[in-house]
Amino acid sequence: MKHLCDISHMKSRPAFDRVLLSYETRMAEEQSIASRLSGTEAFARRDEFLLSVGEDVAALLRDLIIGLRPKILVELGTSYGYSTMFLAAAAQQVGGKVFTYEIAPEKQAFARAQIAAAELSEVVEWRLGDALGLLADQRGPVDFVLMDL
């Protein structure tokens, strides 16, 4: 099966691949559900759906991190962890650490489980709450930021 993002230049990562496949499956199921909703209903339920950064952006983020070799990465808006997984895989490759901020506990819990299943927990630090307040305690310097709020 073709993955959304070509990770062929990265070493073999079966756990990453399994989680990516689960994200792909979820996105397909949710797209089917959303297609049957009115625009108003879909908007009202948007926080239930995995709204990923997409194939091209995930590849760009991965390549930027590998090229820039940042040590401290900050993600504002973990959501369900799709982009977090790509950030973490690239950060692991270059010796970096991802600090990811999310305001919704249920989204962060889902993302944590996915990152653990992808065997990337050691490079991710989780922050739960309003990013504006929490950022005051962010250690730095911050080398890379993804603002996905």
Q: What is the number of E strands?
A: 4
Order of helices and strands: HHHEHEHEHE
Structural class from helices and strands?
A: alpha/beta
- Please tell me how large the radius of gyration is: 15 Å
CATH class: Alpha Beta
The CATH architecture comes to: 3-Layer(aba) Sandwich
Q: What's the number of structural domains?
A: 1
Helix content: 40-55%
Keywords:
single chain, about 150 residues, Rossmann fold, disordered N terminus
Structure description:
The protein has a 4-stranded parallel sheet, with helices on one face. Helix 4 (82-94) links the parallel strand 1 (72-76) and strand 2. The chain is built from 6 helices and 4 strands, in the order αααβαβαβαβ. It has helices at residues 14-35, 39-44, 55-68, 82-94, 105-117, 131-134; strands at residues 72-76, 97-102, 124-128, 144-147. The radius of gyration is 15 Å and the shape is globular. It has one domain (14-147): Vaccinia Virus protein VP39 (Rossmann fold), CATH 3.40.50. The relative contact order is 0.17. By secondary structure, the chain is an alpha/beta fold.
Q: What can be said about this structure in brief?
A:
This protein is α/β, with parallel strands linked by helices and 149 residues long. 48% of the residues lie in helices and 13% in strands.
Give the helices and strands, then pairings.
Blueprint (H helix, E strand, L loop, with lengths): L13 H22 L3 H6 L10 H14 L3 E5 L5 H13 L2 E6 L2 H13 L6 E5 L2 H4 L9 E4 L2
Parallel strand pairs: 1-2, 1-4, 2-3
